Amino acid sequence: MTVLESCPKYNMVAYLEKTDGNVEFYEIIDFITRSSIYHALTVSPVVSTTFVEQFWTSAKSKIINNVSHITAKVAGKPVSISEASIRSDLLFDDADGIYTLPNQAIFDAIQLMCSKSTSWDQIHTNIATAVICLTSSQKYNFSKLIFDGMLRHLDAKKKFVMYPRFISIFLDKQLENVPVPLDHFPVNALNSKVFSFMVKKGKHFSGKVTPLFASMLVQPTEDEGATS
Predict the structure, then answer these.
(1) What is the dihedral of CA 121, 99, 78, 61, to 10 degrees?
(2) Residue 142, class by beta-carbon neighbours within 10 Å (0-12 exposed, 13-18 middle, 19+ buried)?
(3) Which of 12, 94, 172, 176 lies in the 20 to 30 Å Cα band around 46?
(4) At the top level of its lineage, which domain of life is listed (predicted)?
């Protein structure tokens, strides 16, 4: 079997611990902890290198009951992944979520974030849409984003280990009672230094700090508001 390449920083587990050194990020940590992507950002399964490589070397696109699936053979057993199964396995509730926004909506949102109006085109439109939806409390279809990325990867000229943590979760659901090989893919975790890097100001920093949107903050209950 061909050994696939992997990126050490690919799919790192998020660091969301509150410490004395990241007090100014507490609101962001709270926001992410409450978000729909918290589980996907922090789940850290045992990742079998053998199983993940077997999946990607045998993965194929297939239509089953008019629904697109990615099928493969792992440990000699057939496995199948769809947008719906991703939604279930990663605890996303996004079947009716937004997938793309019009360019003008992206431009407007970028300006509200005090970013350059052209900065959004440096990343994929769907990623820009995902960020905008998160910050504005709109439901985004992360399940489709992940599944479509996997589909595109099937046609890549050179395969690599994509979504190792997620693939392991998907396989765990379908390979019950199958012994997992001892060769483990290292799942790296971010540490407290990530906040130190975030506070560094680059030479192009305008000096203007954008506060979190109201939709990202904990909203007081009616009783709490009356007390205040």
Answers:
(1) -60
(2) buried
(3) 94
(4) Eukaryota
Half-sphere exposure of 190 (CA within 13 A, CB side): 18
- For residues 163 and 123, the model is more confident at 163
CA–CA distance, 38 with 31 (Å, rounded to integer): 9
Tell me the pLDDT tens digit for each residue of 38-62.
999 999 888 898 999 999 999 999 9
**Longest Cα separation, the chain:** 65
29: CB partners within 8 A, 6+ apart: 16, 17, 18, 22
Q: Which amino acid is at 19?
A: T
> Which amino acid is it at 22?
N
Vertex 100, ends 143 and 159: CA angle to 5°?
Answer: 50
Contact between residue 81 and residue 59 where contact means Cβ atoms under 8 Å apart: no
- What share of residues in the chain are helix, strand, coil (percent, to 5)? 45, 10, 45
Q: In this structure, what token pair is assigned to residue 171? A: 């396989």
pLDDT at 228 (0 to 100): 44
Residue with tokens 């085109």: 121
- Burial label for 36, CB within 10 Å (0-12, 13-18, 19+), is middle
CA-CA-CA-CA torsion for 198, 130, 71, 38, nearest 10 degrees?
60
The pTM of the full predicted model, rounded to 2 decimals, is 0.81
